[in-house]
Amino acid sequence: MTLAARNVGIAIIPTGKCNFPIRMIKNYKPSGIAGSIFKLLHLAKQMKLESYPPEMSSIKRLVVGGEAFADESRSYLEEIWGCDVFNTYGSTEGTMCGECKAVAGLHVPEDLVHMDLYDSRMKHFVKDGECGRIVLTTLLPVKGRCGTLLINYDIEDMTTIVSRDQCPCGRTHMRIFNPQREAETVWVTGYPFNRVDIERGVFQRENMEYFTGEYEAFLYSGDDRETVVMRLSVECEHPDQCNSDLIMENFLRGFLSGKPGLRRAYNEGVFKILLTAFHLGELELNKAPGRRKRLVDRR
């Protein structure tokens, strides 16, 4: 992204992190920041603590990447920053897909990479509109060079083709949904759900009056081994003031939306959800080294 920005004449302030000093925004007055959802949430909180509301800054747009996210978390980020938030997707080995102002799917740069979508067994292509595993092949012009050459490379991410028609922005690239990591998908009573589904429930707008946005979920086997228990931990500034019943109702509305199989398992008691509010910094992910895992299967 840095090289692409340079090539189109954009001035760049590389920091590597979103917890840089607020004086950088005050002094340089950047018009945009690229980072993950949670890094940008932390930055907004830091700015408020320093009496510099993010919506009053020079920022006109945010570019979010690094991990898949729910539409609800995007909407909340737009609200607290007071600007548009655009999605981007990339893999270490592959290429970058970007979202335009139309927000009608991620554009796949088909002049740089060929993208196929296979079924879960990697046997057949899937039809447009069906979910499949992303397989990439690098495209090079005659005598062209690249650092990493991919040939039918499975990056273990899942997505769906939104459209192959021309986008309202004018581009003719194929567009896809925000990809999700297959490793972040679990199965309960024969039905799958992803970390993003949990995030959709956490970031219900009414809940964000209590939550900071940080969460983690753990799956356990129940006492009868047929029951699955999900222990959801959320971070709150004032856990004692949380309305537990309202929070749980809001979470279930977002999490179980469009998942009739999981909803049925929950109503029948074979899938149990326990939600606990913790003080700032008390979640397990704050103590674990390396990349944060928000959904862990401990069955």
Overview of this protein structure:
The protein is an alpha+beta fold and 299 residues long. The protein has three domains: 1-90, Rossmann fold, CATH 3.40.50; 106-178, no CATH class; 183-297, ANL, C-terminal domain (GMP Synthetase, Chain A, domain 3, 2-Layer Sandwich). The protein is 22% helix and 29% strand. The chain contains seven helices and 17 strands. The chain has helices spanning 2-7, 23-28, 37-49, 71-81, 195-202, 244-255, 260-268, and strands spanning 32-35, 61-64, 84-90, 96-99, 106-107, 113-118, 132-138, 153-159, 161-163, 175-176, 180-181, 185-188, 191-194, 211-221, 228-236, 271-278, 295-297. The strands form four sheets. A seven-stranded mixed sheet has the order 1-2-3-4-5-10-9. It has a four-stranded antiparallel sheet with strand order 6-7-8-11, with no helix packed on it. Helix 3 (37-49) packs parallel to helix 4 (71-81) and helix 5 (195-202) crosses helix 6. The radius of gyration is 21 Å and the shape is globular. The mean pLDDT is 91.
Order of helices and strands: HHEHEHEEEEEEEEEEEHEEHHEE
At the fourth CATH level, what is the homologous superfamily of the largest domain?
ANL, C-terminal domain
The main sheet orders its strands as 1-2-3-4-5-10-9
Q: How many strands, what sense, and barrel or not for the largest sheet? A: 7 strands, mixed
Kindly state the percentage of residues in helix: 10-25%
Q: Note the overall shape.
A: globular
Please identify, by name, the CATH architecture of the largest domain.
Answer: 2-Layer Sandwich
Low-pLDDT sequence parts: none
Question: Helices and strands: which structural class?
Answer: alpha+beta
Radius of gyration: 21 Å
- Residue-averaged pLDDT, rounded? 91
**Could you tell me how far the N terminus lies from the C terminus, measured between alpha carbons in angstroms?**
39 Å
CATH class of the largest domain: Alpha Beta
- The DSSP helix count reads 7
Strand runs, count? 17
Question: What is the percentage of strand-forming residues?
Answer: 25-35%
CATH topology of the largest domain: GMP Synthetase, Chain A, domain 3
Number of domains: 3
